[in-house]
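Consider the following input, taken from an annotated entry for Cation-transporting P-type ATPase N-terminal domain-containing protein (Lophiotrema nucula).
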Amino acid sequence: MDKEGKRAPRVHYADDEDRIGSDRTPGGHTRRLSRQSSSSSLSIHSNHTRTIQPETALPITYRTLSIEVDEDLHKKEKAVKREKEKTTVDLADLKWHTISIDELYRRLSLSENQGLSEEQAKRRLGEYGRNKMTPPPSGLFGKIMGYFLGGFGSILLIAAILVFVAWKPLGDPPATANLALAIVLVAVFVIQAAFNAWQDWSSSRVMASIGTMLPDQCIVIRDGQHTSVTALDLVPGDLIVIKQGNKLPADVRLIDVSSDAMFDRAILTGESEPVAASVEHTEDNYLETHNIGMQGTHCISGSCLGVCVATGDNTVFGRIAKLTSEPKTGMTPLQKEILRFVLIISLFIAVVVILIIILWAAWLRKSYPDWINVPLLIVDCVSCAVAFIPEGLPIALTTSLTIVANIMRKNKILCKSLKTVETLGAVSVICSDKTGTLTKNQMVVTDIYAAGEEYTPEAARDLLAVIRSEKNIDTPNKKREDVMDQVRIVSGLCNSGEFDASTMHMSLHQRKINGDATDQAALRLSESLGSVAELRQSWKKSFEIAFNSKNKFMIRLYSPADQRPSSNNTTLLIKGAPDILLPRCNTLLADNGDIINLTEQQRRRIEHVKDTWSRQGKRVILLARKSTMPPFSVNPEKEVLVAARQGLTFVGLVGIVDPPRDEIPEVVRILRGASIRIFMVTGDFKLTAQAIAEECGILSNISMVDEVSALSRETKHGFERRSIVLSGPELMTLNANQWDQLCQYQEIVFARTTPEQKLRIVKEFQARDNIVGMTGDGVNDAPSLKAADIGIAMGSGSDIAIEAADMVLLDSFAAIVEAVQYGRLVYDNLKKTIVYLLPAGSFSELWPVVTNVIFGIPQILSSFLMIIICCFTDCAAAITLAYEKPEADVLLRPPRNPKKDRLVDTKLIFHAYFYVGLLECFLSFTMAFWYMERKGVLFSAMWLKYGNMDPKYDVDYVTEVTNTASSIYFVNLVVMQLFNLLATRTRHLSLFQQPPILNKETQNLLLFPAMLFAIVVVFIFCYIPSLQRTILTTEVPVEHWFLPAAFGLGLLMLDEGRKYCVRRWPNGVLARIAW
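Applying the prediction step yields:
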């Protein structure tokens, strides 16, 4: 039984060689394909009993491109179905899919071969407008409410209301200080809302500018020439050239499709089953017919030619309103972790407040009724709660992420979501594609092998020139086939590349070619040997199977353009991987044009040339041909594939060089220093991949490279190996023990991999607790890009790869270093912000309230000054930490483990509360009570007195001294926090290694305005007489400015010593407890 007749494999690719072909209509146009597995193995929702992993069935459900990515397609599918029902009525009048192609041309005033003229295009652009959709309503009211009530806004508002109530009507008499506190809380409430609005505007502007950086070009035929235009300038009537990997920029009516052309409509239908393209309509429903390509869908295989019939809001995508708005997203992992921390803090303070209320209600109210009244209780509880919760943290988080997004934009890195930035800091493995990622994607043919001889392109050009001159002189009427001319014909005709009309006046190497890099190199070779335009005019294409990563070859059928209709002479041209095609060749094209049998000696010679070129890092492509008949069955694709399985005539080999990017070896070195393993995953031949990996530095010692035989099928302990090179077929034979061993290698090259093998590589490393980044630019990379923890696409890559990725490198792969560095920086800076906010803003403000309630001493820090510290002095300084530059050792540390390394852990709490917090709190208490002792108010006279002090103490005098002591406590905290700010700037390095000034790489000049702001706030609230009387503050004796400065300097030096010990003894006790 023929192989094609066997049952389809468990996972059946849309581009599989074994697929079943398509029907043909009497009109000669390709119809909808009839696939053997269309309703089973290609569908995630298979009705068969066998199990298929959704991520291994192609096409993958690709992610939609937006700043935040919504991956919940099951929910989207239901929503889309509801919208489709509403939209169907609106689409009932659309008949583009039912009219004939000739009628389509007539209605759109379109020439079949020439397309629109530039004049027509300009006129229609004015008539229909640009190809973009009207943005959804902004929801201004909801946004404004979010600005005011988001973050801790709601807490501030409730606190202000409670303090107003404590002032009036509960105040008896009303305390002016409470009114002032309530006004400050309202002011902070308004300020934080304004800051939220500014931050939203700023981040929106950054993300909008990032969105414009994405390539949005498409190929159209205008005035008979292929030209590249921006998708925004498409107009109805444009002839659009659609190739594998393209995202449709508008709704198109398909007028010519290859037999393997298929579209992924998951973005519109929520279904993962691909749709076979057709020229004739298959359904009366506009949404369901297969001869309409809808905007936002992807061509996952084959190629098509389509006529644009709708743009902008008139497309199906534009009419379904729900799909035009940005998807709703949940919180990012880092935001969830911060929320977790805030909830823990909030729960703790809630417990404290409840205990205070219980103590007051059950004991103080009865035993000491004059000590704390209801208004004072409310103010104490509110102040304690507001002060303890770090209001500056959400602002610092948003600021950090916006700053990093801006830095990413400047480095031409597009991050689609905030989650991407966070994940970068934890990446431990990067699997990189070769072509276009590690290499320049500027392929050039450097060698040709034909008829037993090797040539350079220059030598081949000279040889053809001699042969042509001989023909013209000796035998002008004799058409002697020459092997080099056949190399020119196969490389020029079996090629999906097209010269861009706008660059045809340039030299050959400067011309722009629309097509993949391999086709570009082959097309330039063909053009150098003779005019490709003339060549294509003399041949007529009748059938095509596009190159795909499964088959690894491309087929086109051609017949002479001047051939009589009664003749059916057809030539099959094929170009692809030598290891696939050479076994199918049994004849050879000799130098004189004769076809001779391919001997074993000649086959070995071809293998030797292929291996030699591959070891030199060259991509080797085999060119072959075969005389055949045009397909006539209902299954032409199968017929052509069967014809291509044997009896091919070997024409030649071409060696293509795609040099590594100059910066790649340094990038690999830096990533290795950051304890990130970088592997190559490519579809290229094993020897080629190994050679390029050595040039890139991915393989450090070529003589110590293991093969698959080094992986034992039994459990292996103490396994230590460095480098290994594996091919895709070898991967499929590995068991779990061998994968365990493989995942321990430091240097790996995966060659000849298919999309499902790339996907498995990602899954296997993830299963072993690795955070995997996957880079790629082709259609075959999309499934693994989606499955990876962070998918990284190149800006020059296919639309599908860009859509599937989380991050897009618009310029160079070297930008990955910046991306990882700033991904780690976000995490570092947030830890610094928390460490800075906790000692004074929560710990040192809690104890004055606790000692007041439990031990009956006066509240040594007033509630008003508590709010000033947490909402003004500390908050401003904390935000400046978001602007900190990366520490010099940030790329010398191993990546964090998200399961173990939490943003807030016991080490950080210990440092913030029991190291810095305890010192600041103790010294502030000491300074305040020392001042009171000096003024004659003994500590023992206040201890456990609850306001019932000895009659010898004048109440007004004690109150006055207490107010001054409160101001001293306030100044002591503020000044010590200035030094704590300098200490907190670095986690491991000395302040002198990371100076805040005089070094552009490390400086943060915003620290000093924040310090000055804190001092100014102190002077405003402690030195203006009218405010002193209102909020009960006083001037601070001068010695109480210098003493906290000395304490702060001591704290800074103490922390410098701690960091030195951490660096000097990385395995010591201090290093183990360092935050």
